């Protein structure tokens, strides 16, 4: 990892106009908003199953993986933004003592811009700085607003790649009674989507797999229930996977997605047998409550803990400052 | 003197200093966090190193933990209720333990370099080693050098590490500062044990260049100090602590006991009357001269007037021990209370006969004379046994105090007025002798228990209180050092406590800790003080910028309670046997029957007077001296038969 700030100083010294701006678009991940469809696996149609009396799965140890991304526009070469981004991921393992300890982590600082749109001196300074440079498409470099969105996509791709690398590394040493819980989908990774003890926990529901009565059953799932297992239809490079919904908290009085999680596990007959115990297990993860995170109704505390851990170790100068953006000198 | 039993220098840090805008690090205080499982606790001494560790040449800060906090990332207690669905049992079943913090507040003990004084760096925190403790408490200034003045006071213990803590003799016994005050609840604070151990430590470590030292201990309750020369029970842990502190676990080698007689004038008024031990107890007997010098002690506030004062001065200067003509034709030589009483009677009779209505004698009003007479008579009545009406006195060995000797004055069963008198006279004598440098030692530790009784925060300005104030404020220049103990420090005169250079606290009463005198202590330190185990103390000393908790071993002397069980006090002896015992003590050759023959049919006051004289003289032949003092027996002469005188001129023989 490059020493933070050193390459920024280099490109500014080479003529880039310094900037300090955290675009609104960097503050959260985007959800895919599309209908993809799914095929029921467990039942003929999507059905609701109570979890009463279901014995929760109780792994001896569980590893939780999450990642963070932070970025800031640190300069402009003409009108092309130069973005400094920090991506990090960590796995924290929970053992017999119920405490979380870090067993793997990785972090990287990258620069995101469009090199061929930068002044020659700035470009050379950036290339010589030793920082990994990610480029957004040439067509997005024309307009700063589009460049921000494109930069964000690049940051997300870098983060997911980092998470995937960390997860796959952990799978190789995962004990027989140990599970890996990933914040997000499994289907981005072949290794993850095929592993018998990897579990994806998806709390954003931009992608919808059902419509009509199935959709109603999925989104009005009562507290303490799960849906039947289904197979999301593949999108792009995604692998075959089994998925099902579970409700952690009663949604009545809040909204349809309140306390609603979608779980992912390998597409395998064993997953059908484990769907209920896994759902019951994830329900036990409601406590401790992951407050003060505003997503606490769907955010598992261990995932929240990993995120807190990563943010505590992230560079301080990439987080949005509460101060005003009054004019300041560029020196 | 420091034995290095440190962990290796590369021992990992136990914490890290943190500072926020709300809780910044300052030059006098800092905060640090540790793992949840840590050996750090309230009172622990830590070392902070600037940078990533030792050897970087950065600032080093020593601190003592004064407060501790634990909290989790729980935003509000309600969220815990929500997570557990309102069932406390479920809260314990959550699959993950919340993130917790152990955050500690520490007060700075020392910074190196000391200048410029700066906020504590945000560095690594290490558990203090022996050497660190010496540095932190600035003990390095008096532990080494050509003339070390370190006196072991206890062991600092924390997290399996322990280090001896020393106080500076120059600041404990003068001349830089002096006096020690120890507070704590009865029974649990182990005040007496702490003083016994510290005296032992002083006797063994008092620097040779500071001369000789002795202690005078007033035993004011029970058998507390009656067995200082007898070995007590110690366990292996005590012995290990003695060894670590470099103090030999042995009772005091030279102890002299003094106790007044009981009212019978022959049995000692002490609990050390077991036949095996009573031989070491010297009677404490004072006569008119000893009392008159401290007559002010006997007078309460209402009595203190110029007239009474002047009359007492007159008696002391012009009457006592001199040939004195009373103005009515009588010549007196007043040596004893009995002589004085004869003088008073002579004065009253003379005034009554000389002129009816005459009310002055030698310019002193008869009411003043009567008042002084009553007070002096009162002391000889209330303190019978201590104050002798007749006969010589027996006192502490003024001018012949031994080095490293303890003089125990047992006044536990003496009337409070007598206790005041004993205290006032002994301490005044010590002061005078130390001023003249003819006591026999250069420094004397005076141990007084129940200080709140002698120097209360409020109440009348008694002679004893004034004297204690005087010692507190000026004693350090003389080598007169006050070690005082009390249950409630807040009830002791502020100037007496305030002048104590070294303050020691055992287990404290919570109500006492709520008084203003303890505001400087953190709530956690107060809680620790309120729950302090036996054998642990908090020490404040001029070299220590913060109070330090130490443990001390049990004193190597027999505790009062155990002593009374092992050496039960003997029952009072009949008058004759008591006299025999005292004379045999003076001269082993004397046979009891000889003595009994000599004192048979003699008046007890005559026997007591002869015995006192013999005791004071300590002749070669005690019996012969005693017999001589007793004088010849005067046989009672039979009354002469009175001749009857026959009636004159009987009127008639007739029966009518």
Question: What can you see in these coordinates?
Answer:
The complex is a heterodimer of chains A (331) and B (656). Helix content of chain A is 26%, strand content 29%. With 331 residues, chain A is an alpha/beta fold. Chain A has one domain (6-315). In chain A, strands 1, 5, 6, 7, 8, 9, 10, 14 and 15 form a 9-stranded mixed beta sheet that branches. A two-stranded parallel ribbon of chain A has the order 2-11. Chain A has a two-stranded antiparallel ribbon with strand order 3-13. In chain A, strand 5 and strand 6 (80-94) form a beta hairpin. Chain A is elongated and about 65 Å long. With 656 residues, chain B is an alpha/beta fold. Chain B folds into 4 domains: 15-90 and 97-136, no CATH class; 178-283 and 400-509 and 544-564, Rossmann fold; 289-382, no CATH class; 573-630, no CATH class. Chain B is 33% helix and 19% strand. In chain B, the strands form 5 sheets. Chain B has a 10-stranded mixed beta sheet. Chain B has a 6-stranded antiparallel barrel with strand order 1-2-5-4-3-6. Chain B is elongated. Mean pLDDT of chain B is 86; it is low at 1-7. Chains A and B meet through helix 7 of A and helix 1 of B.
Q: Could you tell me the mean pLDDT of chain B?
A: 86
CATH architecture of the largest domain in chain B: 3-Layer(aba) Sandwich
**Rg of chain A, nearest Å:** 22 Å
Which CATH class of the largest domain in chain B? Alpha Beta
CATH superfamily label of the largest domain in chain B: P-loop containing nucleotide triphosphate hydrolases
Question: Rough shape of chain A?
Answer: elongated
Q: Count all strands of chain B and give the number.
A: 22
Topology record:
The complex is a heterodimer of chains A (331) and B (656).
Chain A: H1 6-13, E1 17-21, E2 34-35, E3 38-40, E4 48-50, E5 61-77, E6 80-94, E7 100-113, H2 120-128, E8 132-135, H3 144-171, E9 178-183, H4 190-194, E10 198-202, E11 207-208, H5 212-219, E12 225-227, E13 230-232, E14 241-247, E15 260-266, H6 269-284, H7 301-313
Parallel strand pairs in A: 2-11, 5-9, 7-8, 9-10
Antiparallel strand pairs in A: 1-5, 3-13, 4-12, 5-6, 6-7, 10-15, 14-15
Helix pairs in contact in A: 1-2
Chain B: E1 15-18, E2 29-34, E3 45-49, E4 60-72, H1 77-83, H2 88-91, E5 100-112, E6 124-127, H3 130-136, H4 140-143, E7 150-158, E8 161-168, H5 169-172, E9 180-183, H6 191-205, E10 213-219, H7 236-245, E11 254-259, E12 281-283, H8 288-292, H9 295-298, H10 306-319, E13 323-325, E14 331-333, H11 337-354, E15 360-361, E16 364-365, H12 366-382, E17 405-410, H13 416-436, E18 443-448, H14 451-454, H15 463-478, E19 480-486, H16 494-498, E20 502-505, H17 510-513, H18 523-530, E21 536-540, E22 548-551, H19 560-566, H20 575-586, H21 592-599, H22 604-617, H23 622-630
